[in-house]
């Protein structure tokens, strides 16, 4: 190993804000020496000038970068997902050797990661797709990290990632999720849950403001109070901060000055598209994605502004009671969002052959990531008690929580509908819950319709087999279908 003396044990390619912060985080941990490379050397030099204490080993090209790294060489790519990632991978494959490790720390689509891992594996080089959550602050101070890839790569990579991950209750927020694209798959689901969580919080704010007339600053105090209870989470915490902010230019609450058109980076849509392919209902996440899409259709919204309906205002006789109802509705809907997200993780693991431990995923989401929340401990406990849990919402803790909150949940959804206030995430979450617990669904009629117009067949409740009806007006004939 003497050939490794004075070399870096980890390298970072791509020195935009996320890459720079991750490199600084790595360099600040004992035992790490960090090599850095950027397409334009100006950014490399800027990082060197601003943080001489980090002891970075800079490189001007890929050959120098590879020569700077100790074997097995390990490099984390922090560039924009897409063709840029493929270009960097090609360059690293050119200068790396079998046994070296390439890590994609961007927000790649997991199917791209599966493709890349298969191609890189043929060269003898390990490829790891790693979801990194926590934004710029997390990258610098400790993110939640979700790496996939081979067990061989994890042996080298694990100690490095544990050194920089967030810590929750004494445990680093990183685990080997599974092979090839498993890490990016779980990060995608994380982001889908994040979409739902944010939309639910926004709906809660909207209902309280319209129903009680409270100012954003007053609602900020409500969220701050909620953050001391079972809703304690990073998103609730920052919501209070956003609502307290005053716009210096106008003196108005900043939330009233921000254009009500929400942007998206695509991971929420990927979650919904993937869930559709897997046959998993993630209606709360889907409605959160659709709500952002609807908000960004100003021409349609302007054209529909004069359509009839309630004006979005309503009088609440007991403001405190209504606020408490909204809190309970938010908690119940949040449980559904996580339950749907973990359903998707279970289905994805089955489809792609990943051994994903659900309790471990909940544990690494307790710190560093955007959806970190108090009740993730309860999810870890639920899967520890029953690893084969068929739906998170049926675990005793969550079933009890929904039992005590559902009347408030229903009152809020009714109040929103009567006032004409859109609450798609609250409403769809409740509809999903009721659909899940229904003893019989109208899907029987749908199957009859499908058989009528397309001879798609159906199954019966009273005997085995597959059946088709010869539909003919007032008379019909039922026949069993030979499926062999």
Automatic annotation (TrEMBL):
State the superkingdom: Bacteria
Pfam families in the cross-refs: 6PGD, NAD_binding_2
Q: Which InterPro entries match?
A: 6-PGluconate_DH-like_C_sf (IPR008927), 6PGD_dom2 (IPR013328), 6PGDH_C (IPR006114), 6PGDH_Gnd/GntZ (IPR006113), 6PGDH_NADP-bd (IPR006115), NAD(P)-bd_dom_sf (IPR036291), Pgluconate_DH (IPR006183)
**Can you tell me where the transmembrane regions are?**
none
Name the Enzyme Commission number(s) assigned to this protein: 1.1.1.44
What reaction does this enzyme carry out catalytically? 6-phospho-D-gluconate + NADP(+) = D-ribulose 5-phosphate + CO2 + NADPH
Complexes and interactors: Homodimer.
Task: Give the matching NCBIfam families.
Answer: gnd, PRK09287.1
Task: Identify this protein by name.
Answer: 6-phosphogluconate dehydrogenase, decarboxylating
* Organism from which the protein derives: Homoserinibacter gongjuensis
């Amino acid at each position: 190993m003497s050939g490794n003396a004075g070399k870096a044990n980890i390298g970072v390619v791509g020195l935009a804000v996320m890459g720079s912060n991750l490199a600084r985080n790595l360099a600040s941990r004992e035992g790490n020496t960090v090599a850095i490379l950027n397409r334009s050397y100006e950014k490399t030099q800027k990082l060197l000038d601003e943080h001489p204490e980090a002891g970075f080993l800079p490189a001007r090209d890929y050959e120098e970068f590879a020569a700077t790294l100790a074997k097995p060489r390990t490099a984390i790519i922090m560039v924009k997902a897409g063709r840029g990632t493929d270009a960097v991978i090609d360059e690293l494959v050119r200068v790396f050797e079998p046994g070296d490790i390439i890590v994609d720390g961007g927000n790649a689509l997991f199917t791209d990661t599966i493709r890349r891992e298969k191609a890189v594996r043929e060269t003898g080089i390990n490829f790891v797709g790693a979801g990194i959550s926590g934004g710029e602050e997390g990258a610098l101070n400790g993110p939640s990290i979700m790496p996939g890839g081979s067990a061989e790569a994890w042996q080298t990579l694990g100690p490095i990632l544990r050194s920089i991950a967030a810590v929750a209750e004494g445990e680093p927020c990183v685990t080997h999720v599974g092979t090839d694209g498993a890490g990016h798959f779980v990060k995608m689901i994380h982001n889908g849950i994040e979409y739902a969580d944010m939309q639910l919080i926004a709906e809660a704010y909207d209902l309280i403001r319209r129903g009680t007339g409270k100012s954003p600053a007053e609602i900020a105090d409500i969220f701050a109070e909620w953050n001391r209870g079972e809703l304690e989470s990073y998103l609730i915490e920052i919501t209070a901060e956003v609502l307290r902010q005053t716009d210096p230019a106008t003196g108005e609450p900043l939330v009233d000055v921000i254009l009500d058109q929400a942007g998206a980076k695509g991971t929420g849509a990927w979650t919904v598209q993937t869930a559709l392919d897997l046959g998993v209902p993630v209606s709360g996440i889907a409605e959160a994605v659709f709500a952002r899409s609807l908000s960004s259709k100003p021409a349609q919204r302007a054209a529909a502004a004069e359509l009839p309906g309630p004006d979005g205002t309503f009088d609440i006789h007991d403001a405190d009671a209504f606020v408490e109802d909204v809190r309970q509705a938010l908690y119940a809907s949040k449980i559904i969002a996580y339950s749907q997200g973990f359903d998707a993780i279970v289905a994805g693991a089955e489809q792609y052959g990943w051994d994903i431990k659900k309790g471990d995923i909940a544990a690494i989401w307790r710190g560093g990531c955007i959806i970190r929340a108090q009740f993730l401990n309860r999810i870890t406990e639920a899967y520890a008690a029953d690893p084969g849990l068929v739906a998170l919402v049926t675990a005793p803790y969550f079933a009890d929580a929904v039992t005590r909150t559902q009347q408030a949940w229903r009152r809020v959804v009714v109040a929103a509908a009567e006032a004409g206030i859109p609450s798609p995430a609250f409403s769809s979450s409740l509809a999903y819950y009721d659909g899940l617990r229904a003893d019989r669904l109208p899907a029987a009629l749908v199957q009859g319709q499908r058989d009528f117009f397309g001879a798609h067949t159906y199954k019966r409740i009273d005997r085995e087999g597959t059946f088709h009806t010869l539909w003919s007006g007032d008379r019909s004939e039922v026949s069993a279908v030979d499926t062999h």
